[in-house]
Amino acid sequence: MPSGLFQATSIPVLEQAVNFGQARHNVLAGNIANVDTPGYRARDLSVSIFQEQLKGALEARRMDSTGGSDPITGEDNPLYMPDAFQTILRHDDGKVTLEQQVAELTKNQMQYNTALAIMTQQFRLLEAAISEKA
After folding, report:
1. Contacts 24+ apart (CB under 8 A), 62-66
2. Which residues contact 18 (CB under 8 A, 6 or more apart)?
3. Which of 54, 86, 111, 112 has the fewest CB atoms nearer than 10 Å to its CB?
4. By C-alpha distance, which of 25, 10, 16, 23 is closest to 120?
5. Which residues pair with 92 in a beta bridge?
6. pTM to 2 decimals?
7. 39 backbone φψ class: left, alpha, beta (φ>0; ψ -120 to 50)
8. Digit-coded pLDDT (tens) for 37-70
9. Helix and strand numbers, DSSP H then E, in the chain
10. How far apart are the C-alpha atoms of 17 and 114, rounded to whole Å?
């Protein structure tokens, strides 16, 4: 299979969105689990910083598109962000509220499900193109 097959699709971007959604879900679930813990500070992954990093990676990918194709994963790929989640973790000194955390968890789940649905559709399109059933 050619290494650039996935590069022409949105799959690498969707992969990063799914990974971020999963990591954020774990953090928000931890907040909900500790809602009654005295002195607990809510944690979250910054969506805006993730979006900025992803935008930068997409712009770098566009710049590199004139050269050779990068592998899907690996340090040469501008969409590869191995420590991205550690750099965008933030702590909230405010009080942890169950309603706020459940709302954020629900919103995150919807974004995660949307990214998965689009990724599934991309794979179906690729499968149809490969098997010539399109």
Report:
1. none
2. 112, 115, 116, 119
3. 86
4. 10
5. 42
6. 0.70
7. left
8. 888 888 999 888 998 888 887 787 777 665 544 4
9. 4, 2
10. 10
